[in-house]
Amino acid sequence: MATLELKQITKSFDDTHVIKGVDLEVNDREFVVFVGPSGCGKSTLMRMIAGLESATSGDILIDGARMNEVGPADRGLAMVFQSYALYPHMTVEDNMGFSMRLAGVPKEKRREKVLEAARILQLEPLLERKPKALSGGQRQRVAIGRAIVRNPSIFLFDEPLSNLDAALRVQMRIELARLHEELDATMIYVTHDQIEAMTMADKIVVLQGGEVEQVGSPMELYHHPRNRFVAGFIGSPKMNFIDVALVSTAAEGSTIKLPGGETRQVPIDGAGLAGGTALELGVRPEHLALDEQGPMEGRIQVLERLGGQTSLYVQMDDSLLTIMADGDVAYRVNDSVRFGFSADRAHLFDAEGLSLPRLHRHPLAGLRRQDNRAPTDAVDQ
Amino acid sequence: MTTSRTQSVPGVSASPVKRSPLTEALLNRRLWLGVLGWTVALVIFFPIFWMVLTGFKTEAEAIADPSLIFSPTLESYAEVQSRAGYAKFAINSVVVAFGSTLLALLIAIPAAYSMAFLPTRRTKGTLLWMLSTKMLPPVGVLVPIYLLFRDVGLLDTRTGLIIVYTLMNLPIVVWMLYTFFKDMPKDILEAGRMDGAGTLQEVIYLLLPLTLPGIASTGLLSVILSWNEAFWSLNLTSSQAAPLTAYIASFSSPEGLFWAKLSAASTMAIAPILVFGWLTQKQMVRGLTFGAVK
C-alpha cells in the first residue's frame, strides 16, 4: 500500500510563488504523470514530495502520515533524476548498492538485491562498469535500478527520458510501463512531453503557473478538457481554435455560426448563454476534414507530407488551422480548400476559456490503462 | 625553418605541393609563441639557476665578475651545515606547511560546502570580504598579533606559526574549494540524500572523492605558500620554531652578506618544495583546470 495526498501545498522562493495551493490524491499502484510547460512548477512539486525541497505551507501525506518534516531518505521514496545523477566514481553495482551500504546492510545481502534488480533491468553484464563506460540508455537503467533496490513505496521520475534520443525514448517508455506492471508500485512521473503523459499515465495532472488545471485519465483529458489550456496542451498536433458566435441553444445542443456565415449544431450544453455570445470552437486537427461541401474555407500555407498522413496548415481569416488529411491528397500550397468538422468531437470555450459541458460523455473517458489489457489475463488467473 | 620549401610529388602531379597561407600563418604563430614562452621561462628560471651555481662557488668567486667557469666546491654547504642545522629548520618548515594546510582544509571544506550548496543572499559578499582581508598589508596587524602571541605564549612555537599560516591561506583555500564544489552537479548530492546519506556521509562518500583533484591542488598551493612565507616566520620565531625562510635570512647577517653561503642555504631551502612541486605538477594542473571541460 502506498498512497500520497497533497493538501493545499504552496511553495514560495522569496516573493515568487511557484506552487499556489495544490490538492492531489494519488492512489495505490497508480501511475500519475505531472505534465505542463516548463516553469509550471511540476518539478518543484515532485521535489517537495521527495523531501529535497520544503513546502512553504500545506501537508504532504504518505499512507496517511504527515511527511513534511521527514527527511528524503525516510519517506520510503526513490527518485530517478533527469541527469541520472549516477555516482561517477562507483561501479554500477556500487551505485545500485549505495543506499544499502549507508544503511549498513551486509555485503552478501547487498549483492543479492543488486543482482535481482540487475536481472529485471538486464544490467547483469555491466555491473563492474563505471557510469562513463555506459550508453545513455544503460545509465538510465542503472538509475532506475538504484531506485528499485531501495524497494520504495513510491517511485518518483523527474523527466527521465528527456536526455535520450527519440528511438530510445520510445523503447524506455515501453520498458517503464512494463516495470510498473512488474513492480506493482505507485509511480509519479514528471514530463513536459504530452505523448509520454498520454501513453504511460493512469492519471494525468496538468499544471500551469503553479496550479492544477485538470486531473484525469488520458482519455478524459483528451475528450473532456476542462479549459482551453488543457485542450491545447493535450493532443498532438495542437487543437485548433476558431472564433464563432452562439445562435441558439436547445436540448440537442447548441447552434453556432461559423466564420463564413454557415451554422452548425454541436452536442454541447450552452444553456444560460444568450444568443450572439462570442465563443471559441475547439477542433483537433484529426477532427477537421477536407470536404467540398464543408462550411469553412481557407488557403493552404504549408503542406507537410508524412506518407500516411498529410498535415495541412490552412489560413482562415486571421488564424492558421492544422488539418490532418489523407497521405494522398492532391492539393498544393496556395490552393483554396473547403473543410468541415465532426460535430461530435468539437469543443466550445467561453470567454474565460472554460469548456462548455458536452451532452454526451465519451465512452472511453473513464478508461484506465489496465483496461487496455486483453481479457486473457483474467483467464490465466 | 624551411616554411616556404616546395616539393614535387613524383608520378602524381608535377605541380609543387604548397602549404596554404593559413597553415603558414598558424605555423608562424606557433613558432613565435614558442620563442616567447621559452624566453619568459628562461628569464624566470635564471635567478634560480644562478643561485644554484653560486652555492657551489667560494665566497671570493661569488663576488667576483660573474663567470660560468669555476671549480665547484661544497665548501659553502659544509659551512652552512656546521653553523646551523639545516634539518631542524627543514622539519619546522614541513610541520608548519603541512600542518597549516591540513588545518585550513579542515576548516575550509565545511565552509565551502555551505557556501556552494546552501548559499544565502550574503554568500557572495562573505566570499569577497574574505578575499579582501588578503589585500591588507600584513605589517598592519603585526603589532597586535605579536602582542597577542606573546601574551598567550605562542611566540616561537610551531603551533603559533600553523595558526597564522592557516589564517593567512584560509581565504584562498575557501575560494578555490568553493569554485570546485560549485562545479559538482547538485543532482549527485541529492541522489545521495535520497539514498539516505547524511551531510557527513554525503561529504565523505560523494563530495570528497569527486572533487579530489581540486582539493589536492588547493592543498598543494597552500603548502607552497606556507613554505615560502617569510614575513611572519621572521617576526614570530627566533630559534625553536624557525622554518627554512628564517634559516636563509640568518645568512644575511650584520657581519655582511655571504653570497655563496646564502645561495647554498637557499638552494637547500627550495630543494624540497621544488621536488614536491615537480612530482605533483600533473595533479596541480589538473586541479586548476578541473571542471573547465565537462
TrEMBL record, chain A:
GO terms under cellular component: ATP-binding cassette (ABC) transporter complex, substrate-binding subunit-containing; maltose transport complex
UniProt KW keywords: ATP-binding, Cell inner membrane, Cell membrane, Membrane, Nucleotide-binding, Sugar transport, Transport
Keyword ATP-binding: yes
Domain ABC transporter: 4-234
Molecular function GO labels: ABC-type maltose transporter activity; ATP binding; ATP hydrolysis activity
KW Cell membrane (keyword) present: yes
Gene3D superfamilies: 2.40.50.100, Nucleic acid-binding proteins, P-loop containing nucleotide triphosphate hydrolases
InterPro entries attached to this UniProt entry: AAA+_ATPase, ABC_transporter-like_ATP-bd, ABC_transporter-like_CS, ABC_transpr_MalK-like, ABC_transpr_MalK/UgpC-like, Mo/tungstate-bd_C_term_dom, NA-bd_OB-fold, OB_MalK-like
NCBIfam families assigned: PRK11650.1
PANTHER family documented for this protein: MALTODEXTRIN IMPORT ATP-BINDING PROTEIN MSMX, MALTOSE_MALTODEXTRIN IMPORT ATP-BINDING PROTEIN MALK
Protein name, entry field: sn-glycerol-3-phosphate ABC transporter ATP-binding protein UgpC
Native organism: Halomonas icarae
Organism lineage: Bacteria, Pseudomonadati, Pseudomonadota, Gammaproteobacteria, Oceanospirillales
UniProtKB/TrEMBL annotation, chain B:
Transmembrane segments annotated in the record for this chain: 31-53, 89-115, 127-149, 161-181, 202-227, 258-279
Cellular component annotations (GO), alphabetically ordered: plasma membrane
A Pfam match: BPD_transp_1
Presence of keyword rRNA-binding: no
Iron recorded as keyword: no
Swiss-Prot/TrEMBL GO biological process terms: transmembrane transport
Membrane topology designation: Multi-pass membrane protein
Subcellular location per the Swiss-Prot or TrEMBL entry: Cell membrane
Main location: membrane
Keywords from the named record: Cell membrane, Membrane, Transmembrane, Transmembrane helix, Transport
Organism superkingdom: Bacteria
Domain ABC transmembrane type-1: 90-280
PANTHER family linked: INNER MEMBRANE ABC TRANSPORTER PERMEASE PROTEIN YCJP, MALTOSE TRANSPORT SYSTEM PERMEASE-RELATED
Assigned protein family: Belongs to the binding-protein-dependent transport system permease family. MalFG subfamily.
Protein name per its UniProtKB record: ABC transporter permease subunit
